[in-house]
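Anyone opening a protein record will find just a pair of labelled lines. A complete record is shown below as an example:
=====
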Amino acid sequence: MDRIQFITHRDQRILLVDCSQCMAGEVATIADLLPDFVTREPLGSVLVLADFSGAQFSREAVEHVKIAAVFDRPHLKRSAWVLTENLPKAFYDSIQSFSGRQIPTFTTREEAMEYLVS
């Protein structure tokens, strides 16, 4: 899946989850695949950048994202999302509450990557 891949920024590995411009069904599919990538890595080691720029969301897609966020939690060092006001606040709050994580959001990938490696 080329929408989930490791990239390097400032000599650090970041797992890029590229959901940009995806339809809700694609977001759900990518979310379902994500735990396989993250859980292969050591606990507390993964920097995740999820780019949801221009993505579409449905209740079902959000449920898939919520489940992935819970599976990923033990393996994450830090995460950041790129959003373009396309995810309703109620959905975003629901994901954070369900996963027990605070997920900072940014308007660009560059800002999110800088946050991740800082």
Summary: The chain has a mean pLDDT of 95. DSSP finds four helices and five strands in the chain. The CA atoms of residues 43 and 103 lie 18 Å apart.
